Amino acid sequence: MIVIDHGNDIYSGYLHLSRFFVRGGALVRRGQIIGITGRSGTKSIHLHLFIKMDSGAATVDPESFFQAVRQ
Q1: How many Å apart are CA 54 and CA 36, to the nearest integer?
Q2: What letter does residue 56 receive in the DSSP assignment?
Q3: Is the sign of the CA dihedral 31, 26, 18, 60 positive or negative?
Q4: How much is the average pLDDT of 3-26?
Q5: Angle (CA) 16 13 48, round 5°
Q6: CA 51, 52, 58, 64: dihedral to nearest 10 degrees?
Q7: CB within 8 A of 11, min separation 6: which ones?
């Protein structure tokens, strides 16, 4: 799992990766490839994504979050 701290108490997490291209504490830039999705126990390649806010107290639907920040 990779968790990115975006600042302003917003975190995104990426689970079920088969390869990691960043290490803990690394600075990640927009558009940078951080990993490759994997199978993780299933036959299909997939990714689990979460968005958390308020020190992890609030889990936000990623689709709604991305729509809100695009506006």
Answers
A1: 28
A2: T
A3: negative
A4: 93
A5: 40
A6: -20
A7: 3, 4, 5, 51, 52, 53, 56
What are the φ/ψ torsions at residue 23 (nearest 5 degrees)? -120, 165
Q: Scanning the structure block, which residue is given the tokens 């079920």?
A: 16
Two structure tokens written together for 13: 């997490």
Q: Which amino acid is at 6?
A: H
The pLDDT tens digits for 15-71 are 989 999 999 999 999 999 999 998 776 778 888 999 999 877 899 999 998 888 887
Buried b (16+ CB within 10 A) or exposed e, 1-34: ebeeeeeeebebbbebbeeeeeeeeeeeeeeeee
DSSP per residue, 4-42: EEEETTEEEEEESEEEE---TT----TT---EEEB-TTS
